[in-house]
Amino acid sequence: MRLRPAGKSEFIGGVRCYVGTPSGEYAKEKAILFLPDIFGIDLINAQLLVDDFARNGFKTISIDYLNDDPVPVNAFGTPEFDLKAWFSKHGNEETRPNVNKVMAALKEQGVTVFGATGYCFGARYCFDLAFEKAIKVTVVSHPSLLKIPEDLEKYKNVAEAPLLINSCTVDTQFPLEAQAEADRIIGGGKQFTDNYRREYFEGCTHGFAVRGDLSDEKVKAGKEGSFKAAVEFFKNHL
After folding, report:
1. What is the per-residue burial (b if ≥16 Cβ within 10 Å, else e) of 159-172?
2. What's this model's pTM, rounded to 2 decimal places?
């Protein structure tokens, strides 16, 4: 298993990003925005995912929209860490401007078509970008910060980007009830349609697509399966 990221850190529009660039020919006018969870762009697992998207032919940019202030990796084992206080400093007003700056700079470089993949915290931004018709394809994994059913109904009525949701068994942020609502509202009662797919990974918990315990066979299958589903979805729709 690769443990050393192959991409590079660079500033785009004045914002620090981790960038994966395909080694061969690729469509220069297309890019995937990688919107990480609360642990940010320096998490090794997230960087390896960016690298893997690049290996599959997509220039991929992970954006530091947390303003160099991610949640520490060991925070949930630290009683004194105040997650509520952290969220109060990382609302849309503080975080979204960096996404806009990166997209504007990439457009100046010739990018005209964007896809977005968001993990947990990042899914909120994917939905908002889709509402604004700023992206052509949306992929979210174990999404959080969504209002259910309001955001699902808005996606159905406003967004045009095909949507893939990678879901799992144990997820307080996007539980089984919310998953069923997504199928009902966006899928018209179906889990798979031409422009909507909800992959479901049995035995996995929130965070599996990035931070899953690969010693658990079900979690390993979920992590690998969710990435494969994302690549196929981008290849079909971006």
Report:
1. bebbbbbbbbbebe
2. 0.96
